Request: fold
Amino acid sequence: MKISTKGTYAVRLMLLLAMRGDELVSLKEISRVTGISKKYLEQIVPSLTSAGLLRSVRGAQGGYRLANSPDKITILDVLNVMEGSIAPASCLQGEKFECNFPTPCMEFYVWKGLHEVQQNYLSSITLQDVLDHSSSAAIDNYCI
Reply:
């Protein structure tokens, strides 16, 4: 499994908005803070908005904010929107098992197990968890 640039940037964007709370943040500001080009953000934001993860407000004072609280949005939610499926084998991409071979492969249990581990892990981490971990890591790295 390799997460695309769009996937990693979407997570970064969502984390910035999680840090900002209910504040509306413009794409220009998001670009400045994250280092992601505004043009690239314009490709990412519509998918997150149509999936119900972001809310947008138009106008001079407009911008973007999370549609839910950071403790309700998982990393898997974000990656599913941007990546479609992060299944390690094509037969696991849909809701049900679909094998293109006449007989199921012997290694299916390996790919299925890996997929379950990925799903469980990424669905267990919320944006808030990442923010909390980042805060505690910063405290742990304090030196005089």
Q: What stands out?
A: The radius of gyration is 18 Å.
